[in-house]
Design goal:
The complex is a heterodimer of chains A (98) and B (649). Chain A has 2 helices and 6 strands, in the order βαββαβββ. By secondary structure, chain A is mainly beta. Chain A has a single domain, classed as Alpha-Beta Plaits, CATH 3.30.70. The longest helix of chain A has 5 residues. By secondary structure, chain B is an alpha/beta fold. Helix content of chain B is 31%, strand content 14%. In chain B, 55% of the residues are buried. The chains are: A mainly beta (98), B alpha/beta (649). At the A-B interface, strand 3, helix 2 and strand 5 of A face helix 1, helix 9 and strand 14 of B.
């Protein structure tokens, strides 16, 4: 195993990614920062970069940041694993989860 | 990428706070009408007041564009019996709604008379209320002429109240046609349109400002409300609002009994921002509240359960037939056209199914059988109802993207697998609130209330209609009210309270305090109540107030807001306990069980209990069940000048 620098970090709040940003599509317009009721995000200090998820544990998963994003695909919804729903193909019986 | 700890690892330091810090600095705003809370009720109040030509300031904790429980969307404009397709008289429908014990006859009368007009105004502003593109041609309830979509919801009856079921034949609908009182709407278009209209009318909007207290004439409790204080939750700036009239529209309190510290946003039935601030500031100002002892079992996920809607029921509880794992249909009413009834079935129905699951008759899990629905009804449910409802748009989009096809796939329901919440996880968001009169004026001069801020509130269209009404009534008051000054002493006292947590850099953070308050409520204000338990609750909350609140620390203006919200929750809890101590009887509709007063709804206790602070002392009193009088007559007496749908600029 290659040598890896290990730093001392506390356990971080988790789940901590209510959304995923795609930095190739997101242009850092921060519209999501504005529509969020909670201030889950803050603008990134560097202009043009996706916002920083600062308060993920306060998210109520209303989805407005994703719904109202002017650049489709820049931000996608990401339920915590335990919240992801299931469905079943009626004909084959195959079960899927988000 | 994008998380705080990613940034820390990449940069070697935490990001700076992105907004300028303005602790202690003051901004003073003078306005005719002040609206506190920029959700559905608040936006409509601001619009209603601004149309009269007065100056209006609208203060909102988040950003008005998507804030509040109805910010993301709305799928049903409920209880609009004045719509042209309705088969029931609005006044009769209002009476039917007010027939439920401890409802708000004033609010529902306003809703039933005015929310159709309100909806037409929503359309004028750019909200979508009709199937103009013909996407749902052939759907039951769609009117080809008006292109309105009537929903099956409430088409037979508004509510089944367990133990009080009675057949309802409306005098105005003797042939028992479907009542047609609920309209399907494209509510994701509403909130941005409301903000735009506020701006167009010149409303001054103060986003990201949490109002922390009401200012009264000479700083006296019970005096006329002459303004408010607030704090910007990004900059920490102190805001002083001076007003001739104010409308409170901040909604009730969620998550008093429970918070999941790592999924805090899930811990609230409505919006995370609903923390009882408005009710508490009115209480401190001396306004009378009622129904504060009413609670129910928390309906939401709290992060420990699945989330649909705001975490409540399932994808498949309205309009969709339920089947077991083998495809066997469950005898569970679907509230769609087939049943056309109230939203919640009788408890006996659920209990019978639960027994049949335990005996092996039905196999878990349960599924919503979307493929069995006719195509147009399936689309009307999946794309329109769920696609336009508050938090469900993102849910159906995410399912679709993941490959779910409602025409092919059964959607899993978590009913029966998860059971209901623990009985000591309770909520108060839908019960108590401000007492109002036929002007939606509170017991304080200069203070009005709308939407969920009032006792016994209803839904989105109720918030809209009562907001619009409170706005015009507050404006009428402001127009004739004299100038008044605020008390600097009262401002300074509040300023000291507000900034205390930012003066400390260690101690107790808001999450721990919130969880501590919640646990005290679980232990002492639970499903079962006694005088001694309730008094232990008061002692515990007092101890928290005296020993833990002074330890609160906030590292930035956002956490300062959360800390101040905790103090609202703490006071809200104390009000609930005081009200619970004063009601010396149990009550089914109030979700209220006193072990020491076990008689359920004895006739002498069928009355509202009111509560207020008078000179710092808690005072309770009672009001008759229908204290509002004859709803039709009273409404008409108070609204002789009502002009209907807005025709002005």
């Amino acid at each position: 195993m290659p040598e890896k620098k290990v730093i001392a970090m506390p356990n971080i709040t988790s789940p901590n990614k209510p959304v995923n940003f795609n930095p190739d599509i997101c242009n850092g317009c921060n519209h999501c920062v504005e529509v969020c009721q909670i201030d889950v995000y803050i603008p990134h200090p560097q202009k043009g970069k996706p916002p920083i998820i600062l308060h993920p544990e306060e998210c109520w998963y209303c989805g407005c940041c994703v719904n109202d994003c002017p650049r489709p695909g820049a931000v996608t919804f990401n339920w915590p694993l335990q919240q992801r729903g299931y469905w079943k193909n009626k004909a084959t019986g195959e079960v899927h989860q988000i | 990428m994008s998380t705080w700890h990613d940034y820390l690892k990449e940069q070697g330091h935490a990001p700076d706070w992105p907004y300028p810090i303005r602790y202690d600095k003051e901004q003073e705003i003078d306005t005719d009408v002040l609206v506190i809370g920029g959700g559905i009720a608040g936006c409509w109040a601001a619009i209603g007041a601004a149309r009269t030509g007065l100056t209006v300031a609208l203060v909102e904790k988040a950003d008005t564009i998507r804030s509040g429980a109805g910010g993301p969307g709305c799928d049903h404009w409920c209880n609009a019996p004045a719509n042209p397709l309705s088969n029931v008289d609005p006044d009769e429908w209002a009476e039917h709604m007010a027939d439920r014990p401890y409802s708000n006859g004033i609010g529902v009368q306003i809703q039933c008379r005015e929310d159709w007009d309100t909806l037409l105004e929503m359309e004028q502003m750019g909200g979508k209320i009709r199937d103009t593109k013909g996407e749902y041609k052939g759907a039951e309830g769609r009117d080809d002429k008006t292109k309105l979509m009537i929903s099956p919801r409430y088409t037979r009856v508004h509510s089944y109240i367990p133990g009080m079921v009675k057949p309802v034949t409306f005098k105005s609908n003797p042939d028992q046609k479907l009542n047609n009182v609920v309209i399907r709407v494209w509510g994701t278009t509403f909130k941005p349109a409301l903000k735009k209209e506020c701006k167009r009318l010149g409303v001054k909007i103060f986003d990201r400002v949490m109002v922390t207290s009401l200012l009264t004439e000479n700083g006296v409790q019970g005096g006329r409300v002459v303004g408010a204080t607030g704090v910007n939750n990004r900059t920490g700036e102190f805001m002083i609002f001076k007003s001739k009239a104010a409308v409170l529209a901040t909604a009730g309190a969620g998550s008093i009994w429970n918070i999941s510290t790592e999924l805090g946003g899930y811990s609230n039935m409505m919006s995370r921002t609903i923390t009882g601030d408005g009710t508490v500031m009115a209480w401190k100002a001396g306004a009378t509240l009622t129904k504060m002892e009413s609670t129910g079992v928390l309906r939401i996920a709290t992060g420990y359960k699945h989330k649909w809607y705001t975490g409540a029921g399932d994808a498949s509880y309205e309009n969709v037939p339920l089947v077991d794992a083998n495809g066997k249909r469950l005898p569970y009413p679907i509230q769609g056209w087939e049943d056309a009834g109230a939203m919640v079935p009788m408890p006996q129905v659920e209990e019978a199914i639960r027994k049949d699951i335990l005996s092996g008759k039905y196999a878990l899990p349960i599924y919503g059988d979307f493929p069995a629905m006719p195509d147009v009804e399936r689309r009307a449910t999946w794309n329109l109802m769920l696609g336009e409802e508050s938090t469900t748009k993102i849910i159906i989009d995410t399912f679709n993207k993941a490959g779910y096809d409602p025409g092919r796939d059964l959607l899993q329901s978590y009913k029966f697998i998860e059971g209901s919440s623990l009985a000591q996880w309770r909520e108060a968001g839908y019960g108590g609130g401000l007492l109002v009169d036929w002007n939606l004026k509170t017991t304080l001069d200069g203070l009005y209330a709308a939407g969920t801020q009032m006792f016994a509130p209803e839904d989105h269209s109720y918030a809209a209609a009562t907001g619009r009404y409170a706005g015009r009534k507050a404006a009428a008051y402001a127009r004739q009210a004299g100038e008044t000054g605020i008390s600097r002493e009262q401002v300074d006292r509040e300023k000291a309270r507000v900034y205390a947590p930012v003066k400390r850099s260690s101690g107790m953070d808001w999450k721990e305090l919130h969880a501590g308050i919640a646990r005290a409520m679980q232990y002492y204000v639970s499903e079962f109540k006694t005088e001694s338990l309730l008094n232990m609750g008061l002692d515990t909350l007092r101890k928290i107030e005296e020993e833990s609140v002074p330890l609160l620390f906030a590292l930035d203006p956002h956490k300062l807001m959360r800390s101040l919200e905790d103090t609202s929750l703490l006071t809200y809890g104390q009000i609930i306990i005081h009200a619970s101590l004063a009601r010396k009887a149990s009550s089914f509709p109030l979700g209220f069980q006193r072990i020491d007063f076990p008689a359920m709804d004895p006739p002498e206790w069928n009355k509202f209990l009111t509560i207020k602070l008078d000179n710092g002392k808690v005072k309770t009193a009672t009001l008759p069940m229908t204290f509002w009088g004859n709803m039709k007559k009273q409404y008409e007496a108070y609204n002789k000048d009502y002009a209907g749908v807005y025709k002005g600029k």
